[in-house]
Design goal:
The chain is of the alpha+beta class. The protein has 2 helices and 5 strands. It has one domain.
Length: 97
């Protein structure tokens, strides 16, 4: 199970990890999978209404995803409700030298 951040499609990059730290060893590539949507608040409302577990995280929301099928269900649900949504790396360009 993992927490996927819900981020705005127009600003798909996380600006920070909040209080979290980058891992000590990750072979120079670091990514955070998240849901890129065109309306974060509406996406959170829809997911909550359909019993997806949400929690606040560093000024935004994350959704708990159990597995690949659960991730696909979240994206499909949001698309069915008219929201543009895709799974994407939301930590673009993060590098720890």
């Amino acid at each position: 199970m993992a927490d996927y951040p819900i981020v705005n499609r127009n600003q798909p990059q996380l600006t920070s990890l909040g209080q979290g730290n980058l891992p000590d060893f990750y072979m120079e590539d670091f990514s955070v999978l998240g849901l890129c949507v065109n309306d974060c608040d509406l996406a959170a409302d829809i997911l909550k209404h359909h019993r997806f577990a949400l929690r606040p995280s560093h000024g935004s929301m994350t959704v708990q995803i159990k597995d690949a099928f659960h991730a696909a269900a979240a994206v499909g649900l949001l698309n069915e409700h008219g929201l543009a949504c895709e799974l994407a790396d939301v930590a673009l360009g993060m590098y720890q030298g």
